Structure formats: C-alpha cells, structure tokens
C-alpha cells in the first residue's frame, strides 16, 4: 500500500511539472506584454518595466525562468501579485470559502444524484426512469451560467428566498443557492452513472443468489447491488471535487463570491500573470491529489482491487 | 461545403462499422440502426441538428433582418409581430441575432470536435498500437494536458491573446477552436488508446500481420474501423460540451467578442437587463440549450443503440 502511494506520488511529479510548464509558457511566453494593464491606462515607465523584468527573470531564457519559478514554488513561495500581496496569502484567505462551496455542492449532488439514480435503476424502463433520463439530459445541456443567472433571478430577486450575492463571511445560507447551481450538472452525471451501473449489477448472478436465499429485494439492492454500483460513482465524485475547486469560476462570478475562482478570474482580467500561474499551479496539484485519493478509496470499497 | 461534410462525420456515427471486414460487426451496426429508427430521441436530435446546420450555412433562409441593424428607439421592445423575439438593449432584432448566432456555436463545436478527434485518435493510436516507451511518453503527455481543466485552459489561453474590435471573424472563431482543441483532445486519446488495445490482440489482426500486412495497412483496414465507434460517440457528446464551453468563455467576455454574433455574447449582454426584460435572456439561452441538448442526445442514443447490454 505505502509502496503504491509512493509510486503514485512519484508519477505525479512529471505530470505536475508538465502541466505547470504548459501554463507557464502560455502566460509568460506567448506574445503579449506582461506589464500591460499594470499601471492603469497609461503605459508603464521604462524604469518600472526594467525592474519588473529583473524581478521576474524575464530576461532569462524560458526554461531557466521556469526553473527559478518552480524552485520558489517548492519552497512555498508563489510570488507576489501586482498589488504586492503574496499569492499564497491571498489564496489562504480565499480557499476556505471555495472549499465550503465545493463541499456543499458535492453533498448536494451525491445525495440527490444517488437517490435519483437508484429510483431510476430499480424501475428501469418505467415512467420514473424516463423522467430521470430526460431531465438529467436537459440539466446537462443547460450551461452553468444560464442556470445560475436564472435561479438567481427567480429565487433570489423575485421570490426573495435566497440571498442574491454572498458576503465575505460566506455563511451556509448564502452559499446554498450557489452550491445547488455548482452541483447541478454533476448531479445529472451522478444520477445517470448510478442508474447505468445499478441496472447492470441488478442482472448479476450474485443479486439473483441473494434474492433466492431469501433476502428482501430492498436488502439485495441496497446491500449487494448498490455497493458495487457506487464504485464508479465515487471515482466521478472525487475527480469532480478536484475540478469544482477550480471550476467554480463562473458560479463565483455570478454570485460575487470571494473564492479562488473569483480570484483567478480577477487575475486573468487584470493580466496579473503571477497570480494566475500561482493559482492554477495549486489547482492542478489539488486536482491530482484528489484523483490519487479516489484511487486509494477504490481498495476500501472493492476488496477485489488491491494496490500491492 | 466543409460545414456540411464535417457535420456528416459526427452525424453518421452509425455506419462506422461498415468499413470493417467482419460480418458480425456489420450486423451489430444494422441492429443498432434498427433500434435507432424506432427511437424518438434519435429523430428529435437529428431534426434539431439539421435545423441548426441550416442556420449555420444559410441564415437568410430563416430571416431577412440583418443582425447588425440597431434601432435604438425600439430597444428592449417585447416580442411582437415586427420582431418575433423582441429587441435587445441595443435595439437589435433578437430573432435575427439568435439565428445568426448559431453559426459561431456550430462552427466552434464541429471544428473543435473534428480537431480533437484527429489529434486524439492519432496520439491514442500511436500509444495503443506501439506500446512500450512511446506509450509511456504519450500517456504522460496526455496526463499533463488532462490535469488542466478545459474551462481553465480556455480562460488562460484566451486572456493571453485577447481579441479587439478589428480582429477578423474567422480569427476570433479559430482561436476558440484552437484553444479548446488543445485542451480537449486528452479524453479522446485515452479512449482511442484503450479501444485500440482491446482490438489489437484479436485473431484477425494477428492473421493480417502473419500475411505480411504493413502496420499502416493493419491500422487502416483492421484496427481503425473496429476501434472508432466509441470515439465517434464521445466526440458527438463532446460537441455539445464544446458549444457550452464556448458560450461560457464568451459569457466571461474572453471567448468570442463583439462584433461576432454569438449566443454566449448575447446571454452575457442580456444578464444586465434580465431583471426588467427577461425575454432578452430567454431566447439565446433557449437556443443554446437546445443545440447542446441535440448533440448530447444524439451521442447518447447512438451509444445505447450500439451497447448490446442496454437492450
């Protein structure tokens, strides 16, 4: 087990290096002036540009620059953004909000998704199955920003059921509607995935055996079929948590949430390359770690899969 | 007509197996076709896609009003006989802009899908067919791109090379296609690799090799026809996803930018006015959702038809 974790962690290194290099190249090497927008609408003064270039090693060749940058990252230094605040400090204050939001979205999508999937799966071909299949397709096809803007308008502005925006404290109640919006598309995927796997497993011999030896249908489905059907669902949810931590850009923008996604969008909007690269590096790292955790969970859920 | 022919590739996911030389594969395809013919979901999506393709190729078939004709005096007018979907903040005719907006979305969706299928299939085929160190290297490279979420990569790339008002239409669209292709291919490559690895050990491939067929010939006439079906299905579903991501990028103000007419841009503009005149938001959103839905439904129906377990 420990050997497996170690091997996976070692495999992550080249992937992380490669992914950050792609991002680094895109932000700093593509045509475009890194100092553009830093001094408001006026062009920057030559002395400032010279100092900026020296600070960020812009005169070195790309690979050297990347090496120097990653050496700093390894020591926990993500650089300073153009408000002269350390990126890691900014992220520290914003991550709790995003984690809360993503966590709530995951809980929402997991519970509702699995319930809908099971309801559809045990009644395959009936009305409720068709209903779940069609409604999930519709949810998948509506982009997050349309769902977000619509719910914000009808539930927030018109019905006044939920707060329209989120304050910097980001209370549970304020985050409720954004979490529903954020989790809605994944909810549809979870429901469909649960249904497909359950339908397949319900036909398996071990379920027939369980029913033949006298278990109630509820017990055969709940204990035997469902447990096996949930393995791919767990994989999906784990990977989803990793991407929700970064993919909340749109939701955070609509509801004006002070999270990592909002920070990233601001950074992109202000052409703040340092903030962007730093944030994305952390996001990719979190994404990879989440996937590793999921693989480890596999062994717990399904004893047939071992990591020795 | 490049548009029409590329749509055809995504559209006719069904007869892929006909290129194969195995009798059984053909019967699977005809089985699938038989069950597709009876599926209302399939026909619904085919009709929708045909309509959207028509809008892309020939928007003047649907409307005579120019999408760029702004009548400010009538701004925010509600739907009427004069302007079926009403007018937006700038006084543009929403019906006309929605029809013309289909072009950007469909172009981006189709070309990105084709791009990812070509790039992903070639790399996945190389990795799966050759194995060994090439597979190891290509798989790691795939992982690297896979680690960057599509939307995140899109935002990064588009913000580095922004558009301005003078950027020609096809450059604006091309950039979105390029960036989504760069971050969209890994899922196709993984799928192709695993499906090639499933097909490769089959007897007919070994037989072809024993008869002295060159690797290129084995790939072209034996492996590709039998490994392509899942890729086509996922590419069709992805097409819907790409349209949705394009709209999201445009909504954030960095995908397609005015003067390009697009649903994402229209929705982004409409959000401001949604509290007083929701019809401005409704129509482009509706068309966008229908387009995404059509492609996802088509892919879903074709996959179900080809999956013997689902019948």
Give a short summary of the structure.
By secondary structure, chain A is mostly helical. Chain A contains 12 helices and no strands.
Oligomerization status of the protein chains = heterodimer
Count of extended strands of chain A = 0
Q: Mean pLDDT score of chain B, rounded?
A: 79
Main sheet of chain B?
none
Order of helices and strands of chain A: HHHHHHHHHHHH
Q: Beta-sheet strand percentage of chain B?
A: under 5%
Helicity range of chain A = over 70%
Q: Biggest sheet of chain A: strands, sense, closure?
A: none
The end-to-end span of chain A amounts to: 6 Å
Alpha carbon gyration radius of chain A: 24 Å
Distance between the termini of chain B: 37 Å
- Structural class designation of chain B: mainly alpha
Total strand count of chain B, please? Answer: 0
Give the class of chain A from helix and strand content and strand pairing. mainly alpha
Count the DSSP helices of chain A.
12
Q: How much of the sequence of chain A is in beta strands?
A: under 5%
- Give me the number of helical elements of chain B: 11
Largest protein interface, residues of each chain: A-B, 43 and 40 residues
Order of helices and strands of chain B: HHHHHHHHHHH
Average pLDDT taken over every residue of chain A: 81
